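Reproducibility note. Readers wishing to regenerate the assembly model reported in the main text can use the exact inputs given here. Chain order matters: entities are listed in the order in which they were concatenated for prediction.
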Amino acid sequence: MQPGICTVFLVNTMTVEYAELHTLSNFTFLRGASHPEELVQRAVEQGYSALALTDECSVSGVVRAHMAAKEAGLKKLIIGSEIQLVTGLKLVVLAQNRRGYTSLCELISRGRRAAEKGCYVLAATDFQNALPDCLVLWVPDNQLILGAEDSWILDAFAGRLWIAVELLADGLHRQRLERLRVLGETLDLPLVASGDVHMHYRARRALQDTLTAIREGLTLEQAGFVLYPNGERYLRSRAVIASIYPAALLQETLKIAGLIDFSLDELRYEYPDELVPEGKTPTTYLRQLSEQGMQSRWPQGASKKVIELIEHELELIQELQYEAYFLTVHDIVVFARGQGILCQGRGSAANSAVCFCLGITEVDPARMSTLVERFISKERNEPPDIDVDFEHERREEVIQYIYKKYGRDRAALAATVVTYRPRSALRDVGKALGLSGLQVDRLARSMQWWDGSEVDDSRVLEAGLDPGSPTIKRLLWLVRQLVGFPRHLSQHVGGFVIANGPLAELVPVENASMKDRTVIQWEKNDLEDLGLLKVDVLGLGILTAIRRSFDLIKSYSGRQYTLATVPAEDPLVYDMICDADTMGVFQIESRAQMAMLPRLKPRCYYDLVIEVAIIRPGPIQGDMVHPYLRRRNGEEAVTYPSEEVQEVLQRTLGVPIFQEQVMKLAVVAAGFTPGEADQLRRAMAAWKRRGGLEPFEERLISGMRERGYAEDFSRQIFKQIKGFGEYGFPESHAASFALLVYVSCWLKYHEPAAYTCALLNSQPMGFYSASQLTQDLRRHGTEVRDVDVNQSNWDCSLETHDTDRPTLRLGLRQIKGLSESAGQRIAEKRGALPYASVDELRERTGIKHADLNVLATSGALAALTGHRHKARWAVAGVEEPTPLFPSKSRYEATPMLKKPTEGQNIVADYKSLGLTLGRHPLAVIRNRLAAYGYVTAGELKTLSGGRSIRVAGIVITKQRPGTASGVTFVTLEDESGYINLIIWKKIAEQQRNELLNARLMGVEGELQIEGKVVHVIARRLIDHSEMLGDLLLRSRNFR
Amino acid sequence: MSSSEKTSAVLQGASPTPPALKHRSAARQPVQQSLALSSPDQLPADVREPLPAEITVPPSRTLVRASIKEHLWLCIYLPALPLEALTDRKPGTARAVVEDVQGIRRILLANDKAFAAGIRADLSVNAALSLLPDLNLEVRNPQQEERALKSLASWAEQFTSFVSIEAPSVLLLEVAGSLRLFAGMQTLWQRIVSGFGQQGFTANLALAPTPLASIWLAKSGREVCIDDHAHLNGHLSALPLHCLGWPVSVTESLCSMGITSVGDCLRLPREGFARRFGAESLLQLDRALGRLPDPRVSYRSVARFCALHDLEEEQSDRELLLHACRELLLKLERFLLVRQMQVQRVQFRFFHLRVEATDLVLGSVQAGRSVAQWFELLSIKLERTTLPEPVIAIRLRGGPGQLLSIATDNLLFNTSVKPRDASIARLVERLNARMGDACVRGVTTVAEHRPQYAWRSDGLSGDAPRCAAMPGFWNERQVPALLQEIRQTNNLLLRRPLWMLANARPLASEQGHPFYQGRLTVVDGPERLESGWWDDDGIARDYFVALTAKGVYLWIYQDRSKNAAWYLHGFFG
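Running the prediction on these inputs yields the following structure tokens for the assembly.
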């Protein structure tokens, strides 16, 4: 500002006080251009007396702002919301106290629930209760008049309504101020200064323009007057503000801020109380349930140790008043049990003895004695954490039960804030800058699925664009800012909040994209930050498969198993695991896990817990796997730097593997308080997104130095902490998973037919396709029979007739394109009377032509028509009856159709069923392959390592894990088994074409044998896909 | 010769050999009576290389039909048309055409170099680029393909009078009558292949007695000549079904019964076949085999008016010239009327004996076709033109024609053309005619915060689309934003000076105060404008209204980015 040029109000700018009352963060999606934390930080720097976060019809960002305000020492954070009514009237509503906050939440919920996801609708009628305990600013539009239809606000908000004066350097300050002053006098309303803040500092102007263009679906060049003319909507310095606004208007901001007395800390969460029967307290009821559970778990009476343990836990729960939480989870689990839905709890509290008694978990604490110490800790003041996994296909029933029991106003899913990733940011910014679709594609492509999250210049070069060009520079600059910005709210996978009163008093509820789903405006972390509790209701495929296996076993043999009664610690099962014969089981079936099993040789339950946790990106990046292996195999001495550390790391041979151990280490070795350790845990989870681990690094290393630990050791620990970041796996989760690993292995070993049958009926899940699962089953000696309209049900089933071992009959569900209703009807109408012809099949079932076609293609009509070609001809001739002409069978000449060749049958099998029971395709072309000198997977095991070798097979998986520094793992399949390839980065780049396109891959390489682990290190790849003809096998690509 | 015989406008597809006008005047040969019409790609017709007047037919070794009663169809299939139709080719690079299928861009076709690197049809753009990072990708352009096909059809008309376009990528030539003229099939074949090659197109050819058979054979890549119905069945039987262009559902269904070739189909019972696969498939088989007639529609070059008026002797009398021009315009009017078309631009060319011809181009704001209208413009323009020499002949060419209905639509959308405004349009035309094109310009406001870009001047006649400044003008979703835009525009206009300097003029300043004919008094402001960072002309300025000592209001600004310097940007009234 030039003195003398614009009007200067005579105030001492150094002493002027100001509270910003109208601020949008990036939680007003595609409008606000700064994170709430940035706004808070900046407001502190500018010395504001208060900052109101007023996102448009939302309080999604307030928890972050609240936490940041506490940390940065903001004098006052005000919570409010900008609301635009259907008439165009714009209000800023500020919560004056707890009651005001509630009425604001209710208003937001009303507006959001009435509109589709992401929108809101509010009209004058929605303000009938007049927002008690809220203060209201009216933000006039450019016309500067209050329309007659909006004049109700004068009465409704009498005495707590202000006119917001927003002077944003549009050249009309004087006129605007004058007009508003007159308006204020006419309407008898006070004026107050506010800034319509969209960003924390002015350098975000370009990003704000870009967001606007993205929102409107325009390029920046097209956007014209949709953009703001300047970047004044930022947190201006108090000196600037003082030079623009009359002092009285600034004084008024302080007056308003002074009227407000509310902080999120006041929110108190109350558990639902209907779970406790009349005459009982939560404490006595939980004790009663635990004792009942103890009796059924240990009918002969529990050991003294167990009884003491339970007593100890109950005391702790009582002290922390967590009874209602356990009762809530117990209630959900009881419901699931009653419906026959298999479930299993996990998480820090889930592996307690109380949870075992309540049936929340099946992990016997006696089996897991080492875990109990890490049950809810008093000092940590961390809310108990129980996630419950349910059968994935039936989770919805549980969710609906919760909604029904507590009502939609009291139960809702937590939100997940979907944020901009480099790829989506590139796309949107690229479009706004006017790049063509192809250019954007090119750039976005360079963020391949195996890339990390940073956008760097080399990627731009790779995309054939010039990183030096101004447009590209702008693009990257904007993208870097945009990454991490919230884009929209989605629903959390299963995090439920259940409250005693209406949730809307706590946080607004809005519609999710799924019908009949609502989410709250906060995400999981926000709930944790405020100390609100939630139950995770998750879906897990393996539970579906295990429950189906139990049912199948019962139906053919009468034996009834549960998770708890599957015979424990069976050495035969561990033998199988050590052989890495684990295709189709839970967790330890991936290529990396299978490679580890023969080295780790798990022999007991706790070994499985470690196995589950150790083959994760966290421990791998933290370089913990090899030290652990060496120590376990006795190749390295097991040592501990101190006794305290020994206590923490003893069960994992001195190598930290679990998240809990890292936190405990921070306490015992670096002198962290439990509270700080908890902060560390959260920082660990977030550092990849937000950074912020550095202060902990300093503290950890200096703390350990003080306590006499070697620098190497502390650096190693910190490296592991970083590795845990995104993918840390807590022991409490691994413990629950390990039980499911064991049960699935037991089933695979003892009941292979039932287990495979259950897996097929639960697809899609796991790493392997139906083809691989059935091949595996047949290699283990169980017969699999073809799909047949006269034998198959919709699901795959077991047939027991002439053998003592059941055989597997493929179900109609394997047929690609067959509708479930048709499949069910075929089985149902068949009864004991088989179909004799296609016409009869159609008449009895009334199924559609399309379904008949896919049946014919699958070979399921072979019994009625002969080979596939005949079946398709017959089906094509079937006419659907019309009301006028009921179908009649007609006589017609049957042509001579060629019988399908073996190759054609295999192709058709794969296309329709995804598997073949005929010969493996490679068996068919083995002669040709042998001519090239290719050996089979079976032969590989008989050869010696280190020699050159040629192998070939169908590509079934390609993996390029982020942890393996550019190595691609490929698995090939031939008629005798699987071949594991390791392809180094150099070869992968030289032979991109073969790697990406080959479906039948030939490989020249070196054979590497380490114990039972066989690898081929590829030197050259050859694409032999043409040999397969049009055999359609697609590999599955995993990260 | 009567004058009506001397000038003529003839619609014709393929032009026989017009003599070059340049030679004509010297030799004083009788005027070639015609012709005139040419497709845009063949312009100018008068410089095309003439073919020899007489073709001697060498004794042919291949295929010269004894009788031309039966048809022979030559199919030219362009397998790589989507790629080859695209113009900007960099030689030696790997290229591919991309097609947008339901929002996903996939490779449609790749050139040899790209193919060798593994680029295949159906690959996603991502996959293709990961195979070959410097692959040149272009988006398929069906309009361009259509244009290319038409141009090739016009070219092919030199071989036969019957060329049929079978979109999207096939030309059909009926050549039974041409074989003798072109000395047999082999010559014809080679000329076509090399001619297409020179124009940058790959062609697969096949010859058969029925159109469908020739198409199927060409698509199969079998370059065969079948001149006898008797051989048709044998050749067709071996064809795989995918060459037939039948719906995928039919082909797949047949395939699932083990029926993979035309021969397999022919062995099936007719009734059963028709019942399962529809009568259309059966009809096609019958047509291909010549059992049923299969009429085709001939392609004719798009008509564009061109007519010549020969004056017999050098003429310099304006009235007479105008009269001749009027005759030509009348022909144009009839020509357009018949086709329900109109043009926005016409070109007169006055030929002189000794010097280069003189061109007069007339444009009109509204597409029109009335003689009176053009005539008026012409007479104004001619008045201002000095002809270097007497005129010996006049040629009139119409610009590309538009269909009448389309033009009417434009009138509806173009709100400025109401009956009242028609006279303005006339005025503009007349002004332009008198003072030359580009003298009269319109001013449009542009939705833009930067003052230097907030308006634009437009030429008024010709093809310039006037709504370009309003992106997505007709997009309904944006109407509210647009309304706001307009409101703000009005608002802004009031606050902008009517006289804006093309380039802002630096102002002297002293201690931060701007000077212009003395110290300036700031009256209003600042209006802060910060915008346009996305191109290389972003601004950050504070605008003020200032008053000079003499009482003149100025629009000045202080540049926030460059040393806070002061500039004068405009004058208020």
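We highlight two features of this model. Confidence is low (pLDDT under 50) at residues 1-11, 448-453, 1032-1039 of chain A. Chain A touches chain B through 67 residues (CB under 8 Å).
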